[in-house]
Structures are given as C-alpha cells and as structure tokens.
Amino acid sequence: MLIEERKVWHCVGCGFCCVNQRCTFGVARHPGAQNGLCPELEWTGRRYVCRLMMPTSDIADFVKRELRSGEGCVSFQNPWRRDVRRRTPEEAAAVGKKK
Ligand code: SF4
Ligand code: SF4
After folding, report:
1. Mutate to test the pocket of ligand 1, among 7, 12, 38, 48 (most ligand atoms within 8 A of CB)
2. In the chain, what are the domain boundaries?
3. Checking CA distances to 37, which of 1, 71, 87, 99 falls within 20 to 30 Å?
4. CA separation for the pair 99, 64 (Å, rounded)
C-alpha cells in the first residue's frame, strides 16, 4: 500500500498562530490580555519565540509536548509566514478582527 508522506511546513517564527488563537498557557497566564500579541511572545531580532518554551522556563518540556512544538506549522497559509518581522499592536489587532 502506498502511503503519501505528509508535507511538513517548518515553523519560521512569524507569531501568527499565537495572535490568531492564544494557547491555553497564554490564556491562563494572562487572563487580562486575551487579544493581540501574547505577552509570552518574544522577538529575537529574527523571529518570535515563546518564553514558556525557552530553557529558562521550568515548564518548557511540558509546554512543548502539549503544543506539539517541532511538529510543523499549524497555520502554513497565513500571510505573516511570508514576511517574518516584528509586528505592531495594530497589525496584531487586525488579525483578531478578521475572524
Ligand atoms: S504560524 Fe506557523 S510559522 Fe508562524 S509561529 Fe505559528 S507555527 Fe510558526
Ligand atoms: S503562551 Fe507561548 S505558545 Fe502560547 S500563545 Fe503565548 S507565545 Fe504562543
């Protein structure tokens, strides 16, 4: 039997998924800031990373496992992927309004 290999789109750190739909950890940690850029998102100068997944986080392994980090992009057709850069609060707010 032929099994077609699934194409995996690697995460480029555009940050769109964390703006479009805040994860459980982001919601729990920041109940007062539900929209826009997640407060746990950090711009490194080249891409966004989640502070909760950094080696300095004591729950990094758990968060990575729960959110399937490393298993590919969860929103590979989003427009931010093609233009990875630091986003303004206005750009982040515009993502929420399109829903
Ligand atoms: S939308 Fe995809 S590329 Fe962008 S941060 Fe999320 S997983 Fe990574
Ligand atoms: S907690 Fe991390 S993974 Fe979750 S939405 Fe915020 S930045 Fe993204």
Report:
1. 12
2. 16-97
3. 71
4. 26
Measured from the alpha carbon of residue 54, the closest ligand is 2
Three-state DSSP state, 17: helix
Distance of CA 1 from the midpoint of ligand 1 (Å): 33
Report how far residue 5's alpha carbon sits from residue 16's, in angstroms, rounded to the nearest whole number. 26
pTM: 0.90
Question: Which residue's entry shows tokens 């966004």?
Answer: 48
Handedness of CA 35, 39, 45, 46 (dihedral sign): negative
Ligand 1 neighbour 73 (Cβ under 6 A): yes
pLDDT tens track for 15-50:
999 999 999 999 999 988 778 899 999 999 999 999
Calpha distance 8→54 (Å, rounded): 23
